[in-house]
Amino acid sequence: MRLDKFLSHTGFGSRKEVKELLKKKLVQVNGQLEKEGKKVIDETNDRVSVNDQLVQYKKYVYYMLNKPQGVVSATEDREHRTVIDLIAEKDMVQGLFPVGRLDKDTTGLLLLTNNGDLAHQLLSPKKKVPKLYQASVSGIMTDEDCLIFSKGITISGNEACLPAKLKINKTDEKNNISEIELEIIEGKYHQVKRMVEAVGKKVTRLDRLSMGGINLDQKLKPGKYRELTQNEQDILGAD
Fold first, then answer.
1. Phi, then psi, of 211 in degrees rounded to 5
2. Catalytic residue, candidates 103, 143, 145, 239
């Protein structure tokens, strides 16, 4: 990896900012002063220091994002802003991508990483990773709906869903609305919306609260993100 790219990926700013560090003679590689950003280093074995402080290289990164509405869960899109566009340049690493997808109008917890193996584990239907959603619904959800969901429901396209846990937090018969939480263990296309539609109601707002035992940090405002703590990484089984 080029030295300037390495320093940018490890939190020392843009290529321009890294160039200034090199110019000021603050960067050493294996104890030797280095002024050329184009120098190729072995990021796992070479010892790089900035202002006499050793730089620790992270092979994988893990971010928690509070996804806002209007942003698509993709690495690139010609028409819309993506979740990758929300990541600052200093935090960008090669191969960063969202773990699964939230609809454009769906908000809440979205994990991003460059660890493909972990993403596969979290998204594999065989692993039955729980995902908890909170939704506003047009229509009155009932105890019968809870029972139907708990047994597994068939949705549009004749797709069978695995058993899910529905919790009705509030109903307002006058305005014909419900507030619910729904935990599913798979990730079919528009699954929560289609499940609710299968019992004759409609989701009007959808937020993801948790995934794989990781809860959305309530301090994160929409569009903001942070690195997962070591404890959160351990919960996910991250390297």
1. -155, 125
2. 103
